[in-house]
Amino acid sequence: TYHLAEQRPMMGAFLDALGIGHENGVIQENEVKPDPEKVGPAVSEIAARYPAEHVSLYLNTLLCQDPETWSALTSVPERQHE
After folding, report:
1. Which pLDDT score, from 0 to 100, does residue 82 have?
2. Predicted TM-score (pTM) above 0.70
3. Rounded to an integer, what distance in angstroms lies between the CA atom of residue 5 and that of residue 44?
4. pLDDT in tens, 32-66
């Protein structure tokens, strides 16, 4: 609930950068897989606008919740926040 309560602008910005339809940061379709070519630039975009710890938590949450869909996130350095 943290993301839904606190991070909708970041979630929406990420999904917009990926070209994934959403309603205020919540994906509306069941079967959505991001274009791997867009993942890096989308992550860079939110990393430039939001605190690193928030970005890292969001990316890791996506990956933990659905590793098959979000597998392209495994290689982005922004997941690793100290």
Report:
1. 59
2. yes
3. 23
4. 889 999 999 999 999 999 999 999 999 999 999 99
Q: Considering its fold, how many domains does the chain have in total?
A: 1
16-22: list long-range contacts, CB under 8 Å, 24+ apart. Answer: 17/41, 17/42, 17/45, 17/46, 18/42
Number of alpha carbons in the 13 Å side-chain half-sphere of residue 31: 0
Round to whole Å and give the CA distance between 55 and 29: 23
Provide the residue type at 43 as one letter. V
Can you give the residue range of the structural domain that contains 72? 2-79
Dihedral angle over CA of 12, 14, 19, 22, nearest 10: -30
Question: Tokens in use for 34?
Answer: 């991001």
What integer best gives the mean pLDDT of the chain? 87
The answer for residues whose C-beta is within 8 angstroms of residue 75's C-beta and 6 or more apart is none
